[in-house]
Amino acid sequence: MTSRIVDGPWEEPLSALAGRPVRVARTPEPGDLYAHPATLVSEASVARLSAEAGEDVDGRRFRMLLTLAGCEPHEEDEWEGRPVRVGEAVVRVDGPVDRCAATTRHPDTGERDLDTLRLIKGYRGQAPDGSILFGMLASVERAGRVCVGDTVEPL
Fold first, then answer.
1. Rounded mean pLDDT of the chain?
2. Whose CA, among 5, 71, 72, 86, lies 20 to 30 Å from 26?
3. CA of 7: how far to CAs of 17, 25, 26, 28, 81, in Å?
């Protein structure tokens, strides 16, 4: 697969944030680099993390495609291997998301402001390989329209 560098005004601010030169590359087709085009987390899971943090945690810091209401904390973890209807689409929940230090940064400012990894590890522990898991990866089994407020139903 051949990617191309996409020049733009973001190079300098991204490089400053990362502390080293950063370039943005585009793949020939959307999703070429990602085996899991969908991710999901429940508002209740973010609320559980907020309780650990002692402050409201902005769920945007996890960059999830789907944020679910009406679940128990980490209920989405129990759906691993199952298809889930989301609006007109069906996704298969493939496994947990291995979190990285990007989640420690405020979604508006990019400044490090919350040690999410320590907090998650503190109450959820780590996977045997040392991963810190929060949210779930999913693949698309049947494409379809998904809108805010659509029903989400494990099948």
1. 91
2. 86
3. 17, 9, 10, 16, 39
Instruction: Give the residue extent of every domain in the chain.
Output: 1-33, 34-154
Structure tokens given for 75: 């209920």
pLDDT, tens digit, 9 for 90 and up, residues 82-96: 999 999 999 999 999
Reading the block at residue 91, the tokens are 């996704």
Q: How far is CA 61 from CA 25, 27, 110, in A?
A: 22, 24, 9
pTM: 0.79
Of 6, 42, 47, which Cα lies nearest the Cα of 26?
A: 6
Rounded CA Rg of the chain? 17
CA distance 20 to 127: 30
> Nearest CA to 41 among 60, 68, 22?
68
CATH 2.40.10.10 fits 34-154, yes or no: no
> What's the N-to-C CA distance of the chain in angstroms?
35
Distance CA 102, CA 119 (A): 14
